[in-house]
Structure formats: C-alpha cells, structure tokens
Amino acid sequence: MIIVSQYAMHHNPLYWESHSEFIPERFENYNKVKFGFKYFPFGGGKYSCVAEQFAKIMVPEVIGLTVREFDFTLPIGFKFDISASVALHPENGLELLLTKRKIS
Ligand code: HEM
Asked: What is the pLDDT of residues 32-64, one digit of tens each?
C-alpha cells in the first residue's frame, strides 16, 4: 500500500511558493484538472471522500456562520499540539471556549 501525505504535498516547496505560509487564497478556483495531485483535500483516485460535493457547500457555510457568531479561545492551561500520522490530528483533542460575539 502506498500512502501519500496530504500535509507533505500541500506544503511541498516544489509545488507551492512560500510553502509554509498560511495563504488560503492559493486554493481559490480549485479544480481537480488544474491542481492535479498537488492539492487533494478530499483524497483521489479510488479512495476519496464520498461527501466531497456536500462538504464543499456545507463546511464553508457552517464555518462562516460559526465565526460570525462566536470568538474562539483555548481554555487557560490547555496546550494544543498537532500529531502527524496519515493525517494530522490534535495530539490531545481540542478544547475550545466559544464566546458569543457582540455585533454592534
Ligand atoms: C472539508 C471537509 C472534508 C474533507 C476535507 C474530507 C476529506 C476526506 C478524505 C481525505 C477522505 C479519505 C479518502 C481516502 O480513503 O483516502 C474522506 C473519506 C470519507 N469522507 Fe470526507 N471529507 C470532508 C467532509 C466529509 C463530510 C461532511 C462527510 C459526511 C457527511 C464525509 C464523509 C466521508 C466518508 C463516508 C468517507 C469514507 C469513504 C470511503 O472510505 O469510501 N466527509 N474524506
């Protein structure tokens, strides 16, 4: 079995300028033909996300609504760390405090 790391590909200096910087705009106008396998958030080939189309509509909607309504902070003393295996995941889970934003 061959496993291709999405993290490694999505930060690969061969394919991305300023490869370690957070520049989400670089993924604008994403389409599979243009990007090929240098960017494959939903997997690819035989193994890919069954909900890709649903997620592309739903996830930005949910994130947009949530960040508009709430501020997110880590609880005091909580140490966030990332663990890398096939995919990245929070080493000790992720605790977040949500505070309702005051929209003036
Ligand atoms: C931004 C959101 C999402 C991303 C980036 C994502 C990405 C992925 C990836 C990379 C895989 C693994 C493909 C592989 O086996 O190599 C996967 C599998 C899967 N995803 Fe998603 N996913 C997302 C949202 C969702 C949502 C919202 C659902 C369900 C409502 C979903 C359902 C599934 C299922 C059922 C599989 C397993 C498919 C299989 O094993 O045949 N995903 N997804």
From this structure: 888 888 898 888 888 889 999 999 999 999 999
CA of 22 to the centre of ligand 1 (A): 23
Give the end-to-end CA distance of the chain in Å, rounded to a whole number: 54
Ligand 1 center to 91 CA (angstroms): 20
Q: Retrieve residue 52's tokens.
A: 């890709």
Taking the complete model, does pTM exceed 0.85, yes or no? no
Which of 32, 49, 58 gets mutated to test ligand 1 (max ligand atoms within 8 A of its CB)? 49
Report domain extents, the chain.
1-46, 50-104
Sign of the dihedral through C-alpha 51, 53, 59, 61 = negative
